Amino acid sequence: MVLVLGIESSCDETAAALVDGDGHILAQSIASQEEAHAPYGGVVPEIAARAHAERLVPLIEQVLKRADKGLHDCDAIAATAGPGLIGGVMVGLVTAKALAMASDLPLLAINHLEGHALSPRLADPGLEFPYALLLVSGGHCQILRVDGPGRYRRLATTIDDALGEAFDKTAKILGLGYPGGPAVERLALQGNPRAVPLPRPLVGSGEVQFSFAGLKSAVLRAVESGQHRPEDIAASFQQAAVDCIVDRTRIALAVMGEVTALVVAGGVAANAVIRAALERLAGDHDLAFSAPPIALCTDNAAMIAWAGIERLRCGFSADPLDVSARPRWPLDPSAETVRGAGVKA
Ligand code: KG4
Ligand code: ZN
Prior knowledge:
Elements: E1 3-8, E2 13-20, E3 25-32, H1 34-37, H2 45-66, E4 76-82, H3 86-103, E5 107-111, H4 112-123, E6 131-136, E7 141-148, E8 151-156, H5 163-173, H6 180-188, H7 213-225, H8 230-255, E9 261-265, H9 272-284, E10 288-290, H10 294-297, H11 302-313
Parallel strand pairs: 1-4, 4-5, 6-9, 9-10
Antiparallel strand pairs: 1-2, 2-3, 6-7, 7-8
Helix pairs in contact: 2-3, 4-11, 5-6, 5-7, 5-8, 6-8, 7-8, 8-9
5'-O-[(R)-(carboxyoxy)(hydroxy)phosphoryl]adenosine (KG4) is lined by residues 11, 137-139, 164, 167-168, 179-182, 185, 266-268, 270-271, 298-299, 345.
């Protein structure tokens, strides 16, 4: 049975995991840097890179120990090689290179977005290609057709902010701290999603793209007006975001050809209201719906190890030890560059 060590360090989670070919996570460990970045209201790249450098090796040792395995039991080492905050990516990739060299194991340089894109198959082995994927994280908001590892067609991306970024900025405006997504979702539970009139950018447009900058500005104006309760603003923002993604995904489904399922992945896929809305949309289209368990939505190393396993299975060869870390790395290189898209991890 194949066994892969995964390493993730592209944003503010330092993570290691051991995953086998059946998708069993033998052990995993995630060190969040939330506290280090909270005073700044967002991730500070310098602080992130330093924290990854301090924590990664002990974390890998802990994971191997928990699984009662050594590097000699592994078949490959998979590490995120981009896209992301370059200092952190380099820490993870250089560590993986050193381990691969020292233990004579193949190195798999993984695209972090491919980790998210294939993560639903880690928990749902019945999920078959091709599937429609809504990839929503702190740095990305894309709709892709996933035909297999390394085979992606991007149908939509954001022309300004990513969805997770919109959640984080809304949280900041409401004084909820960082990271904002879970805090906005919690507060929204107590609010009325129809209380505050907010725009739904691009809804109804035939152009399949996303835009959230106008929504964020409208949230700021709603807060400054002093006329609304914070819980109503949070709920109304979340509802506007849901309406945007459902409308955009519906349009993308109409043009992407036949798929087996509608899948949502990435940090924002942890949001229960968004998951429920997409599950309804999948039902309307007679499609299966799949989303990773919440713990596999936000950044983790199990999805990186799993992407490595999927790539090995498809016959992709290992990467050379001089492979570079990449701050930008689109899943679909043929897709047009869109201003603002893929700015961060
Ligand atoms: O995938 P991820 O961990 O990191 C990136 O690759 O960006 O995604 C992090 C993003 C953050 O913007 C965070 O606020 C958002 O996912 N997020 C959520 C929720 N949990 C995390 N957004 C909405 N609702 C949530 N429950
Ligand atoms: Zn991510």
